[in-house]
Design brief:
By secondary structure, chain A is α+β, with helices and mostly antiparallel strands. Chain A has one helix at about 50-65; strands at about 20-30, 35-40, 50. A three-stranded antiparallel beta sheet of chain A has the order 1-2-3, with no helix packed on it. The longest helix of chain B is centred in the C-terminal third of the chain and has 15 residues, at about 190-205. Chain B has a single domain (about 5-244), classed as 3-Layer(aba) Sandwich (Rossmann fold), CATH 3.40.50.150. The chains are: A alpha+beta, B alpha/beta.
Chain lengths: ~70, ~240
Protein backbone atom coordinates (compact mmCIF):
# COMPACT_ATOMS: atom_id res chain seq x y z
CA UNK A 1 0.00 0.00 0.00
CA UNK A 2 1.10 3.52 -0.69
CA UNK A 3 2.11 5.67 2.27
CA UNK A 4 -0.16 8.43 1.01
CA UNK A 5 -2.12 10.07 3.80
CA UNK A 6 -3.96 13.28 4.53
CA UNK A 7 -2.88 13.06 8.13
CA UNK A 8 -0.44 15.69 9.27
CA UNK A 9 0.58 17.34 12.49
CA UNK A 10 -1.42 20.49 11.82
CA UNK A 11 -1.68 22.04 15.24
CA UNK A 12 -5.36 22.62 14.49
CA UNK A 13 -7.73 22.43 17.43
CA UNK A 14 -11.50 22.07 17.32
CA UNK A 15 -13.12 25.49 17.61
CA UNK A 16 -16.03 24.12 19.65
CA UNK A 17 -14.28 21.62 21.91
CA UNK A 18 -10.72 23.04 22.00
CA UNK A 19 -9.43 19.47 21.52
CA UNK A 20 -6.40 18.62 19.44
CA UNK A 21 -7.39 16.87 16.20
CA UNK A 22 -6.47 13.19 15.88
CA UNK A 23 -6.14 10.91 12.84
CA UNK A 24 -9.14 8.71 12.16
CA UNK A 25 -10.68 6.78 9.25
CA UNK A 26 -13.87 8.49 8.15
CA UNK A 27 -16.41 7.86 5.42
CA UNK A 28 -16.60 10.77 3.00
CA UNK A 29 -19.75 10.97 0.88
CA UNK A 30 -18.99 12.81 -2.32
CA UNK A 31 -20.98 13.01 -5.53
CA UNK A 32 -23.10 10.01 -4.62
CA UNK A 33 -20.20 7.75 -3.69
CA UNK A 34 -18.75 6.93 -0.28
CA UNK A 35 -14.99 6.81 0.25
CA UNK A 36 -12.98 5.72 3.24
CA UNK A 37 -10.35 8.37 3.97
CA UNK A 38 -7.99 8.93 6.89
CA UNK A 39 -8.34 12.50 8.11
CA UNK A 40 -7.80 14.65 11.19
CA UNK A 41 -10.88 14.54 13.43
CA UNK A 42 -11.96 16.14 16.71
CA UNK A 43 -12.04 13.27 19.24
CA UNK A 44 -14.89 14.93 21.13
CA UNK A 45 -17.44 16.09 18.56
CA UNK A 46 -16.23 14.29 15.42
CA UNK A 47 -15.64 17.46 13.39
CA UNK A 48 -13.48 16.57 10.37
CA UNK A 49 -10.73 18.80 8.96
CA UNK A 50 -10.65 18.70 5.14
CA UNK A 51 -7.19 20.04 4.25
CA UNK A 52 -6.74 22.28 1.24
CA UNK A 53 -4.70 19.74 -0.74
CA UNK A 54 -7.52 17.24 -0.37
CA UNK A 55 -10.26 19.68 -1.35
CA UNK A 56 -8.39 21.18 -4.29
CA UNK A 57 -6.30 18.17 -5.31
CA UNK A 58 -7.58 14.66 -4.79
CA UNK A 59 -11.23 15.61 -4.64
CA UNK A 60 -10.85 17.35 -7.99
CA UNK A 61 -9.28 14.22 -9.48
CA UNK A 62 -12.09 12.08 -8.06
CA UNK A 63 -14.67 14.61 -9.26
CA UNK A 64 -13.33 14.43 -12.81
CA UNK A 65 -13.40 10.64 -12.59
CA UNK A 66 -16.99 10.49 -11.34
CA UNK A 67 -18.22 13.04 -13.87
CA UNK A 68 -16.61 11.17 -16.76
CA UNK A 69 -19.27 9.89 -19.12
CA UNK B 1 3.00 -13.48 -26.07
CA UNK B 2 1.87 -17.01 -25.50
CA UNK B 3 -0.63 -18.22 -22.97
CA UNK B 4 2.09 -20.14 -21.20
CA UNK B 5 4.26 -17.08 -20.67
CA UNK B 6 1.28 -14.99 -19.53
CA UNK B 7 0.85 -17.33 -16.59
CA UNK B 8 4.16 -16.17 -15.10
CA UNK B 9 2.98 -12.56 -14.88
CA UNK B 10 1.47 -11.72 -11.49
CA UNK B 11 -2.24 -10.97 -11.31
CA UNK B 12 -3.50 -7.66 -9.93
CA UNK B 13 -6.18 -9.52 -7.97
CA UNK B 14 -3.49 -11.46 -6.09
CA UNK B 15 -1.77 -8.31 -4.83
CA UNK B 16 -2.24 -7.33 -1.20
CA UNK B 17 -2.29 -3.65 -2.18
CA UNK B 18 -5.59 -4.20 -4.01
CA UNK B 19 -6.96 -6.39 -1.22
CA UNK B 20 -6.37 -3.60 1.31
CA UNK B 21 -8.60 -1.31 -0.76
CA UNK B 22 -11.36 -3.67 -1.93
CA UNK B 23 -11.42 -6.08 1.00
CA UNK B 24 -11.54 -9.79 0.23
CA UNK B 25 -13.98 -9.49 -2.69
CA UNK B 26 -11.21 -7.92 -4.84
CA UNK B 27 -13.70 -6.36 -7.26
CA UNK B 28 -15.90 -3.31 -7.85
CA UNK B 29 -19.24 -3.44 -6.08
CA UNK B 30 -18.19 -5.99 -3.46
CA UNK B 31 -20.97 -8.35 -2.42
CA UNK B 32 -23.81 -5.96 -3.33
CA UNK B 33 -23.93 -7.14 -6.93
CA UNK B 34 -23.69 -10.75 -5.78
CA UNK B 35 -26.80 -10.28 -3.63
CA UNK B 36 -28.59 -8.51 -6.46
CA UNK B 37 -27.78 -11.36 -8.86
CA UNK B 38 -28.81 -14.15 -6.52
CA UNK B 39 -32.09 -12.42 -5.66
CA UNK B 40 -32.80 -12.23 -9.39
CA UNK B 41 -31.98 -15.92 -9.90
CA UNK B 42 -34.11 -17.00 -6.90
CA UNK B 43 -32.56 -20.47 -6.80
CA UNK B 44 -34.15 -23.11 -4.56
CA UNK B 45 -32.29 -23.81 -1.31
CA UNK B 46 -29.42 -26.30 -1.59
CA UNK B 47 -29.01 -25.63 -5.32
CA UNK B 48 -25.47 -26.34 -6.50
CA UNK B 49 -23.52 -23.25 -7.59
CA UNK B 50 -19.99 -23.15 -9.00
CA UNK B 51 -18.00 -19.99 -8.23
CA UNK B 52 -15.42 -19.72 -11.01
CA UNK B 53 -12.57 -17.59 -9.68
CA UNK B 54 -13.74 -17.89 -6.08
CA UNK B 55 -10.67 -16.09 -4.71
CA UNK B 56 -10.83 -15.80 -0.92
CA UNK B 57 -14.31 -17.35 -0.77
CA UNK B 58 -16.36 -14.27 0.11
CA UNK B 59 -19.09 -15.07 -2.41
CA UNK B 60 -19.19 -18.76 -1.42
CA UNK B 61 -19.73 -17.80 2.21
CA UNK B 62 -22.56 -15.45 1.21
CA UNK B 63 -24.24 -18.04 -1.03
CA UNK B 64 -24.20 -20.63 1.75
CA UNK B 65 -25.12 -18.41 4.70
CA UNK B 66 -27.53 -15.91 3.16
CA UNK B 67 -29.13 -17.93 0.35
CA UNK B 68 -28.87 -21.51 1.67
CA UNK B 69 -27.13 -22.67 -1.51
CA UNK B 70 -24.47 -25.35 -1.96
CA UNK B 71 -21.46 -23.55 -3.49
CA UNK B 72 -18.32 -25.08 -4.91
CA UNK B 73 -15.28 -22.86 -5.39
CA UNK B 74 -12.87 -23.03 -8.31
CA UNK B 75 -9.66 -21.02 -8.60
CA UNK B 76 -6.24 -21.66 -10.12
CA UNK B 77 -4.41 -19.97 -7.21
CA UNK B 78 -3.52 -22.31 -4.30
CA UNK B 79 -2.91 -19.41 -1.90
CA UNK B 80 -6.43 -18.09 -2.46
CA UNK B 81 -7.97 -21.54 -2.13
CA UNK B 82 -6.23 -22.05 1.22
CA UNK B 83 -7.88 -18.91 2.57
CA UNK B 84 -11.22 -19.83 0.98
CA UNK B 85 -10.99 -23.17 2.83
CA UNK B 86 -10.58 -21.33 6.13
CA UNK B 87 -13.55 -19.07 5.41
CA UNK B 88 -15.78 -21.85 4.08
CA UNK B 89 -14.92 -25.02 6.04
CA UNK B 90 -16.50 -28.12 4.53
CA UNK B 91 -17.35 -26.55 1.19
CA UNK B 92 -15.76 -28.17 -1.88
CA UNK B 93 -12.90 -26.35 -3.58
CA UNK B 94 -11.25 -27.15 -6.90
CA UNK B 95 -7.88 -25.90 -8.13
CA UNK B 96 -8.43 -25.48 -11.84
CA UNK B 97 -8.76 -23.06 -14.72
CA UNK B 98 -12.05 -21.72 -16.08
CA UNK B 99 -11.31 -23.26 -19.47
CA UNK B 100 -10.86 -26.79 -18.06
CA UNK B 101 -13.32 -27.45 -15.23
CA UNK B 102 -12.89 -31.00 -13.88
CA UNK B 103 -16.60 -31.60 -13.37
CA UNK B 104 -19.09 -33.77 -15.28
CA UNK B 105 -21.52 -32.31 -17.80
CA UNK B 106 -24.82 -30.70 -16.76
CA UNK B 107 -23.93 -30.67 -13.04
CA UNK B 108 -24.50 -27.21 -11.54
CA UNK B 109 -27.80 -25.33 -11.18
CA UNK B 110 -25.90 -22.05 -11.49
CA UNK B 111 -22.43 -20.71 -12.14
CA UNK B 112 -21.15 -17.36 -10.91
CA UNK B 113 -17.97 -15.66 -12.08
CA UNK B 114 -17.21 -12.18 -10.77
CA UNK B 115 -14.58 -9.99 -12.44
CA UNK B 116 -12.87 -13.08 -13.83
CA UNK B 117 -14.05 -13.80 -17.39
CA UNK B 118 -11.92 -11.05 -18.94
CA UNK B 119 -8.89 -12.52 -17.17
CA UNK B 120 -9.29 -15.89 -18.86
CA UNK B 121 -7.03 -16.57 -21.82
CA UNK B 122 -9.88 -17.42 -24.20
CA UNK B 123 -13.32 -16.01 -23.41
CA UNK B 124 -15.30 -18.13 -25.96
CA UNK B 125 -13.61 -21.33 -24.72
CA UNK B 126 -14.27 -20.39 -21.09
CA UNK B 127 -17.96 -19.74 -21.83
CA UNK B 128 -18.26 -23.07 -23.64
CA UNK B 129 -16.77 -24.83 -20.63
CA UNK B 130 -19.07 -22.97 -18.23
CA UNK B 131 -22.05 -24.01 -20.32
CA UNK B 132 -20.89 -27.63 -20.34
CA UNK B 133 -20.98 -27.96 -16.54
CA UNK B 134 -24.33 -26.15 -16.18
CA UNK B 135 -27.53 -28.17 -16.05
CA UNK B 136 -30.11 -27.43 -18.77
CA UNK B 137 -31.79 -24.16 -17.84
CA UNK B 138 -28.91 -23.39 -15.45
CA UNK B 139 -28.10 -19.77 -14.66
CA UNK B 140 -24.84 -18.04 -15.56
CA UNK B 141 -24.05 -14.94 -13.46
CA UNK B 142 -21.27 -12.67 -14.68
CA UNK B 143 -19.90 -9.38 -13.42
CA UNK B 144 -16.90 -7.98 -15.24
CA UNK B 145 -15.08 -5.11 -16.88
CA UNK B 146 -16.03 -4.21 -20.42
CA UNK B 147 -14.47 -1.79 -22.86
CA UNK B 148 -16.52 1.20 -23.94
CA UNK B 149 -13.76 2.30 -26.33
CA UNK B 150 -11.75 -0.88 -26.82
CA UNK B 151 -9.33 0.55 -29.37
CA UNK B 152 -7.84 2.74 -26.65
CA UNK B 153 -7.18 -0.09 -24.19
CA UNK B 154 -3.52 -0.89 -23.60
CA UNK B 155 -2.84 -3.33 -26.41
CA UNK B 156 0.73 -4.04 -25.52
CA UNK B 157 1.03 -7.38 -23.82
CA UNK B 158 1.22 -6.95 -20.08
CA UNK B 159 4.69 -7.52 -18.74
CA UNK B 160 4.45 -6.33 -15.13
CA UNK B 161 0.93 -7.24 -14.01
CA UNK B 162 -2.22 -8.76 -15.47
CA UNK B 163 -5.65 -7.36 -14.73
CA UNK B 164 -9.22 -7.58 -16.02
CA UNK B 165 -8.52 -4.56 -18.21
CA UNK B 166 -6.21 -6.61 -20.42
CA UNK B 167 -8.99 -8.85 -21.77
CA UNK B 168 -11.89 -6.39 -21.62
CA UNK B 169 -14.12 -6.55 -24.69
CA UNK B 170 -17.03 -4.42 -25.92
CA UNK B 171 -20.42 -5.46 -24.53
CA UNK B 172 -21.69 -6.38 -28.00
CA UNK B 173 -18.77 -8.80 -28.43
CA UNK B 174 -19.40 -10.37 -25.01
CA UNK B 175 -23.10 -10.79 -25.85
CA UNK B 176 -22.17 -12.40 -29.17
CA UNK B 177 -19.81 -14.83 -27.42
CA UNK B 178 -22.59 -15.76 -24.98
CA UNK B 179 -25.10 -16.40 -27.74
CA UNK B 180 -22.55 -18.44 -29.69
CA UNK B 181 -21.86 -20.54 -26.59
CA UNK B 182 -25.57 -21.31 -26.20
CA UNK B 183 -26.76 -18.84 -23.57
CA UNK B 184 -29.89 -16.66 -23.57
CA UNK B 185 -29.31 -13.34 -21.81
CA UNK B 186 -31.96 -12.58 -19.20
CA UNK B 187 -30.54 -9.52 -17.46
CA UNK B 188 -27.88 -6.99 -18.39
CA UNK B 189 -27.19 -4.00 -16.15
CA UNK B 190 -24.52 -1.31 -16.31
CA UNK B 191 -22.70 -0.79 -13.03
CA UNK B 192 -19.87 1.43 -14.26
CA UNK B 193 -20.53 3.74 -11.30
CA UNK B 194 -19.16 0.99 -9.04
CA UNK B 195 -15.94 0.86 -11.04
CA UNK B 196 -15.61 4.63 -10.69
CA UNK B 197 -16.27 4.31 -6.96
CA UNK B 198 -13.35 1.89 -6.67
CA UNK B 199 -11.13 4.17 -8.76
CA UNK B 200 -12.05 7.06 -6.47
CA UNK B 201 -11.20 5.00 -3.40
CA UNK B 202 -7.84 4.17 -4.96
CA UNK B 203 -7.16 7.90 -5.39
CA UNK B 204 -8.01 8.58 -1.74
CA UNK B 205 -5.97 5.57 -0.58
CA UNK B 206 -2.89 5.92 -2.78
CA UNK B 207 -2.88 9.61 -3.70
CA UNK B 208 -3.60 9.07 -7.40
CA UNK B 209 -4.36 6.34 -9.91
CA UNK B 210 -0.81 6.69 -11.24
CA UNK B 211 0.58 6.14 -7.73
CA UNK B 212 -1.49 2.94 -7.50
CA UNK B 213 -0.17 1.55 -10.79
CA UNK B 214 3.35 2.55 -9.75
CA UNK B 215 3.09 0.01 -6.97
CA UNK B 216 3.42 -2.62 -9.70
CA UNK B 217 5.34 -0.97 -12.54
CA UNK B 218 7.65 1.89 -13.41
CA UNK B 219 6.50 5.51 -13.47
CA UNK B 220 6.42 5.81 -17.26
CA UNK B 221 4.42 2.61 -17.71
CA UNK B 222 2.06 3.64 -14.92
CA UNK B 223 1.45 6.99 -16.59
CA UNK B 224 0.74 5.38 -19.96
CA UNK B 225 -1.57 2.83 -18.32
CA UNK B 226 -3.55 5.66 -16.69
CA UNK B 227 -3.73 7.53 -19.96
CA UNK B 228 -4.90 4.45 -21.90
CA UNK B 229 -7.54 3.57 -19.34
CA UNK B 230 -8.84 7.15 -19.19
CA UNK B 231 -9.29 7.09 -22.97
CA UNK B 232 -10.71 3.57 -23.13
CA UNK B 233 -13.37 4.40 -20.53
CA UNK B 234 -13.80 0.91 -19.10
CA UNK B 235 -17.23 0.00 -17.79
CA UNK B 236 -18.63 -2.68 -15.47
CA UNK B 237 -21.62 -4.93 -16.04
CA UNK B 238 -23.83 -7.49 -14.34
CA UNK B 239 -25.20 -10.12 -16.70
CA UNK B 240 -27.40 -13.13 -16.05
CA UNK B 241 -27.97 -15.72 -18.77
CA UNK B 242 -29.59 -19.12 -19.01
CA UNK B 243 -28.24 -22.25 -20.66
CA UNK B 244 -30.43 -22.96 -23.65
Amino acid sequence: MSNFSFISATGWRCGCCNKELQPRKVNVEYMGSVFNVELMVCPACGMVLVPEDLALGKMLEVEQLLEDK
Amino acid sequence: MTTASLRHIPLLCEQQELRQITGDTLRPGGLELTRRAMEFCALPARSTVLDVGCGYGQTMALLAARFGLAPTGLDPAPAMLRQAACRCPGLPLIQADAAAIPVQNDFFAALISECVLSLTDNMPASLQEMRRVLAPGGKLVLTDIYARKPDALPQAQPSEIRSCFDGALPLDTIKAHLRAAGFAIQLLEDHTARLRQLAGQIIFSCGSLAAFWQLFMGADKAASTCSSLATAKPGYYLLIAEKE
